[in-house]
Amino acid sequence: MKRALYLLFIGTLLLLIGHDAVSQSSYEWVERSPLPGAARYGSFNFVIGNYGYVVGGGDSNATFSDGWRYDPEADSWIPIANAPQPMRHGAAFSVNGKGYVMCGQASTNVILDQLFCYDPVTNSWTEKASLPAYPRYGPHGFAIGGFGYLGGGNRGSANGPYLDDMWKYDPLIDQWSSSIGIPGLPRYGATAFVINGKGFVQGGRDSSLDFTSDLWEFDPVALDWTIRPEMPGVGRSWSMVMTFPYEAVVGGGKDVALQVFNDAYRYQPSANSWVALPDYPGGSGWSGASFGIGTRTFGGLGKLLFPSTVHFNDLWELVKRDENSILEQGRNTDGVIQVVPNPVTSGSPIAIVFEGKANPDLLGELVVTDAVGRVVHNERVMLKEAIQLPALSSGQYVVRYLDTYRTWSAQLVVR
Q1: Which of 269, 299, 320 is the last residue of a domain?
Q2: What is the extent of the structural domain holding 210?
Q3: For 185-243, how does the pLDDT look when each residue is reduced to its tens digit (9 = 90+)?
Q4: Same-domain pairing of 250 and 390
Q5: Model pTM?
Q6: DSSP 34
Q7: In this structure, are residues 337 and 410 in contact, taking their beta carbons and an 8 Å threshold?
Q8: Are residues 167 and 296 in the same domain?
Q9: Which of 257, 278, 301, 329 yields a CA-CA distance of 20 to 30 A from 15?
Q10: Cis link prior to 349 (omega < 30° from 0)?
């Protein structure tokens, strides 16, 4: 009886607090150790395991090939093997414990179509299959479900022509295939990120030569794009993106007047909305380096254009000081979500049962991740008594349900 009353109290309290409580989480920028190498912009950035990587980039005098690994626990950097050639302003992603950098510009301003793979075990680079399309710089890229995706970019001058295609890379067979590009105008200098098995592309400069604020969501299963709410503020290109597990923060960027911005906004797919955050305090929010490592997220480096040209090597962490505060009481540690049965035999049906639900008509996100954090199932569902999951292979999983007001989760073992 006490437990039922407690759950009723929490459900009522969450309804009263609602979305405002989520948006009132305290965010703070904390300065971390700067990159030991030269200050730069336009670097390639990816994450492997518990480390962030910065490769290449350049300044006003040169394009770089050096690489660096950042350890967030030690707040320290170490050098890694140089990339096969100097490169800047391309795209990067990581798949199956390896990092990939592709396209961009070489030191001679030659536009590239090459793909290089970094293996952290051997600390070495290998050239892979080149993109079977126009060479380009300023493309957007991300990885979902073991595949890399690259789209858009610029194959000419700052005035174009711009591209609107997208290509899918399979690292197991080292092969590219065509996919579906953004339905909007061709663009370059856009910002890309992944949340819950969906790809997102924000902003950039489009073929009308305007700097846009729009946001597009890519579904790799349905092979379609959905327009989402625009990011607040002015249109811009080359923003940084700092990803948390279920949200992303986009900040900085540049517009046609060469103005560099330091504002930042958080996007939550579960709420499909943006919330303003404290301004980025670093030297430049344009064309910097940014990555999310586990539940921590970082941004830095970049270039300032006005009143004078300056390049930076600083690094900042965006910290949540009171993440979800009272909403933590509504998580599975209080038993508000159950996976039935658990453990379960591989191939058997699984049901997700919610207790203490506040609103049966609430739309949320159901996400299942495996032991290494890869999304194996993702769907939009209504909050209801039971939700059926497809059969899963043997292993350990985390099942999460996210709505506007809270996140519920549970561990699942499949035998």
Answers
A1: 320
A2: 26-320
A3: 999 999 999 998 999 999 999 999 999 999 999 999 999 999 999 999 999 999 999 99
A4: no
A5: 0.74
A6: P
A7: yes
A8: yes
A9: 278
A10: no
